[in-house]
Specification:
The complex is a heterodimer of chains A (344) and B (92). Chain A has 344 residues and is an alpha+beta fold. Chain A contains nine helices and 17 strands. Chain A is globular and about 65 Å long. In chain B, strands 2-3-1-4 form a four-stranded antiparallel beta sheet. Classes of the chains: A alpha+beta (344), B alpha+beta (92).
C-alpha cells in the first residue's frame, strides 16, 4: 500500500516538473490555530500536495495533544496531519505551521511524450459517489463532445460549456457539495467552486478524459482580478477548488472554470463580454499560484478512519468529538483560524 | 440518587424501544449531525446514533413514541428516513 502511495507521489512530482516551468515563484508561511473545547477530540488537518509546481517544508506542530501522525490516503495520496487529544481533556489546543513554495503554472499544449502510469490515472478515470459518470452526466458529455475525436478539443468544449452554463451562487455553503450528478439532474447549475469543478471533472471523465478537482486555499492577492485573491492575512474561509485534466503526451493541464463564474459575479460582468472571454481563455491551461493545493481526494476515508466516513471533500480541517463531526464550514464554532504571510 | 431513580421511572413504566432507520440520501459527515440533532430534540428520545458509512440511524426511545414522529424528525433535515426495524428492548 505504502509503495503505491510513494509511486503515485513520485509520478506526480516528475509529471509536474516535466510539464511546467516557473513563471513566478512565491513562498508562504501558513499558520492554523485550533482552540476546541470538549472531551474526546480527534482532528485531521489537510497538508499541502507535493508536486512539481509546489513544495511544502518546515511542518511544525504544537499543542496539548496526546498523539500526532502525518498520513497519506492510499487512493489519492492526500496528505494529512492527525492529532488525538486525551479522552477526558476538556480544553484542546494546536498550532500547525508550514511553509509552501509554489510556481505559476502554464501548460505547454505542444508538448509530447509525457505518459502517466495506468495506476496513477485510474482514480481520475473512475466515478465516485459525488462524481458519478453515468446517466445524465454521460448523456451531457456525449452531447457536448459530439463529432469531436481529439481529446484536447473535447476538453475545451466541456470547459466552454461549463463556463457558459454554470454560475456562482453566493448563497452556497463553503465551496459547495460538489455533486456533479445532482447539479446536472436537477438542472440547477448554480454553486461555488466545488460544484463548478465537479461538473467539469465529471463531464471530462464521462468523455473518457482523466480529470480531477484540486482542492486548496487562496493565500494572496491576484494580479488579474479581486475575485481571485484574498483581502487580508486571514484566509480561514479562502478555500478554493480548481481542476486538472490529463491529455496523453501533454500531461496534466490546469484549468479553473469556477473562477470565471466568480469573476462574472464579483465584477458584475456580462458572460459574453470581452473581459470574460479573455479570462476564460487564460484560465484554460494556467494557474496563478496565489493559491496552493491540498489534494484531489473525493469520497474517501481519512487516516486513521474517523467514526463518520467517507469524507466528500478535504480542504477544511475535520474533527470529531466522540462520534459527532464539528461543523467545518463554521470556523467560529469549530473553532479554528488560518493565517498566511508571504515570505521573501 | 433520588433524581436518578425519578429519571428511570418512565423507562420502567413504559419501556424502551430501539428503532432502526435507513437514511439513504445522507452524503457527508455533517448530515449525520443534523439527523441526530433533530431526533434528539424529540421528547421521548433517549439516545440516537447515526452513521454515514451505513447510512443508518439507531434511536432508543419511549415505546409510546411513534414511527410517524421519528420519521418526521428525520425528514425535517431534508432526508427521508425509512423504518427498517422497531424492537422493544428487554429490561436487564
Amino acid at each position: 500500500m505504502m509503495r503505491r502511495v510513494c509511486a503515485l507521489l513520485f509520478s506526480l512530482l516528475l509529471g509536474g516538473c516535466a510539464l511546467y516551468g516557473a513563471e513566478g515563484s512565491h513562498r508562504y508561511l501558513v499558520t492554523q490555530q485550533f482552540v476546541i473545547d470538549g472531551p474526546g477530540l480527534k482532528l485531521w488537518v489537510p497538508l499541502p500536495l507535493e508536486s512539481g509546481y509546489q513544495k511544502a517544508s518546515d511542518l511544525a506542530v504544537e499543542g496539548n495533544f496526546e498523539r500526532k501522525a502525518v498520513n497519506a490516503d492510499s487512493t489519492y495520496g492526500a496528505q494529512m496531519l492527525h492529532l488525538a487529544f486525551a479522552p477526558q481533556q476538556k480544553h484542546n489546543t494546536a498550532t500547525v505551521r508550514f511553509t509552501v513554495e509554489v510556481h505559476d503554472r502554464k501548460a505547454d499544449f505542444n508538448r509530447s511524450g509525457v505518459k502517466a502510469s495506468t495506476e496513477e490515472l485510474a482514480p481520475y478515470r473512475a466515478g465516485s459517489e459525488h462524481i458519478r459518470i453515468d446517466g445524465v452526466v454521460k448523456a451531457y458529455a456525449e452531447r457536448i463532445t459530439t463529432g469531436e475525436t481529439d481529446d484536447l478539443q473535447k476538453a475545451r468544449r466541456i470547459y466552454d460549456w461549463t463556463v457558459q452554463n454554470m454560475f456562482r451562487d453566493p448563497k452556497t455553503r463553503g465551496c459547495g457539495l460538489g455533486d456533479a450528478y445532482q447539479s446536472l439532474e436537477s438542472g440547477y447549475l448554480g454553486g461555488k467552486c466545488a460544484d463548478v469543478s465537479a461538473v467539469f471533472v465529471a463531464l471530462l471523465r464521462a468523455a473518457g478524459i482523466p480529470a480531477r478537482e484540486v482542492f486548496g486555499i487562496r493565500v494572496a492577492k491576484s494580479k488579474y482580478s479581486k475575485a481571485y485573491g484574498v483581502k487580508s492575512a486571514d484566509i480561514t474561509t479562502a478555500q478554493h477548488c480548481r481542476a486538472e485534466f490529463y491529455i496523453e503526451g501533454t500531461g496534466w493541464i490546469p484549468a479553473d472554470p469556477a473562477d470565471v463564474t466568480k469573476l462574472i459575479l464579483v465584477e458584475g460582468l456580462d458572460r459574453d463580454s470581452e473581459r470574460v472571454k479573455a479570462e476564460a481563455e487564460r484560465q484554460f491551461g494556467n494557474w496563478e499560484m496565489n493559491w496552493f493545493a491540498y489534494n484531489s481526494a473525493r469520497d474517501f476515508v481519512l487516516t486513521p478512519a474517523p467514526v463518520q466516513f467517507p469524507l466528500s471533500i478535504f480542504s477544511y480541517p475535520y474533527a470529531e468529538r466522540g462520534d459527532e463531526p464539528l461543523d467545518y464550514y463554521s470556523p467560529k464554532n469549530f473553532t479554528y483560524t488560518i493565517t498566511v504571510k508571504e515570505l521573501p | 440518587m433520588r433524581p436518578l431513580l425519578l429519571l428511570g421511572l418512565p423507562l420502567w413504566l413504559w419501556g424502551e424501544t430501539l428503532s432502526l432507520y435507513e437514511v439513504p440520501k445522507m452524503h457527508c459527515p455533517l448530515c449525520t449531525v443534523a439527523v441526530k440533532k433533530s431526533l434528539k430534540a424529540l421528547d421521548g428520545v433517549h439516545r440516537a446514533e447515526v452513521r454515514l458509512n451505513t447510512k443508518e440511524a439507531r434511536v432508543w426511545h419511549d415505546d409510546a413514541l411513534s414511527n410517524a414522529a421519528l420519521s418526521e424528525a428525520i425528514s425535517k433535515t431534508g432526508y427521508e428516513g425509512i423504518l427498517v426495524s422497531r424492537e422493544p428492548i428487554e429490561a436487564p
